[in-house]
Here is the input.
Amino acid sequence: MEKEIRDKYQAVIGLEVHAQLLTKTKAYSSDLNEYGSRPNSNVSPITLGHPGTLPVMNKKTIEYAIRLGLATESTIADHQHFARKNYFYPDLPKGYQITQDTTPICTKGKIYIQSTDGTEKEIGITRIHMEEDAGKSIHDVDVYDTLVDLNRAGVPLLEIVSEPDLRDSDEAYNYLTEVRKLVRYLDICDGNMEEGSLRCDANISVMLKGSKEFGTKVEVKNMNSIRNVQRAIEFEITRQIEMIEKGETISQETRSFDALKGITISMRTKEAANDYRYFPEPDLPPLYVSQEQINEVKATMPSLPRDLFLKYTKEFGLSDYDARNLTDSKEIALYYEEIISSTKNFKGAANWVMGAVKSHLNQFGIEIKDFPVPAKAIARLVQIIDEGKISASIANQKVFPVLLEKPNTDPLTIAEELNLIQESDSSSIQGFIDEVLRQHPNEVERYRSGEKQLVGFFMGQLMRVSGGKADPKAANGLLRKSLEG
Ligand code: ADP
Ligand code: MG
Here is the structure.
């Protein structure tokens, strides 16, 4: 599409995210909530929706919802009730989902994202409510039949509905990245979009720039990665602008994303939409959340990625880039936190994590939990570099590889055993300097007749003859003095 046409329009996006909760048991029964079990093995009569069975609310679901509510600065409702959302589907044995309709547990929250211009932007969270998943229909295993696995039926979900505050596909990408980070930091969902434990429906509309009224939205489903959500949104924006430019009107509909073709396809129009006939769930009592209960959850809240980001940038003086790099994954952030509990050289510690440690993880395709070197040993490396015992490059090239083999050895011992301790003792450094000056009489002559920049050359030579062991700080002064003659 021509840029000129595209630039006339503004996209508006709101996302609905479903997060499968990492509870041991299901939302309303004691059946195991376990991914990958033998099909239809976690299915009691409650899950199967047999007449006469009664649901019982899983307290963990409520706790997890409160955790996310606190993390998103939401208002947490004190009185709530559950609702039945009625529809027929072969993998929904009860014929309805138990959800929350008019009384979601969380409302009016916010999530901070990086906006397209790099600044921080606040995205409103309309609501977060608790509900249950349906089972799984499997169409591609048997040629003739659809198979149904009900292990997933009744697994607890949180649905997170954003305000239509996102303005382009990059912001949607960043928003989902933040949501995934949040649920992972909170330990309430594994955030795996490929396996479907985090799912996203995207609502997209376009309007002329400057318009006060949003266009008609289209909902797109079936994206199995954050990248595919972004692709689906890009496709939809272009498709909708092209339609409007042709004088056609956008109709409210649900479309499905085809990842192979990179296009969206109509599934159903508004007219064909389900009427779910919500009504209050008669088998569950109303839910009351007390302030004490909220305080208890508050007391167990972990550090959140944004808090760490702000601490690293504002208190530690790290760049936004470094802070984001360190907080992208909770496990990396915790490792860094452990290092800085033993050193105050925040930037030095950050460089080790982002450099040598992460390269090692990438090279071997392992997670930080399988990284052999304890955080304390990295802190020790930072310390002995700061004390001038070894240089940073010697630490990287010589000490770190040995530390990987012998992770429980003091890095200083390794440096001593390899004879790598820097010479800061002036008489031995002077010995090296004398040798360098003897070897390069012409350069000494040139230095003395004004080519002061040759000091760099002499430092290089000094490092060479000392095997990298001359402490540069101590050596610099001595070298200049000797050169001045
Ligand atoms: P519905 O009643 O069709 O479910 P909602 O008002 O509940 O619609 O909104 C569902 C999602 O669609 C929310 O994430 C919301 O932010 C988003 N949304 C609402 N209106 C628009 C619009 N005009 N363009 C894009 N997204 C929208
Ligand atoms: Mg809605």
The two ends are 72 Å apart (CA to CA). DSSP finds 16 helices and 16 strands in the chain. The chain has a mean pLDDT of 95.
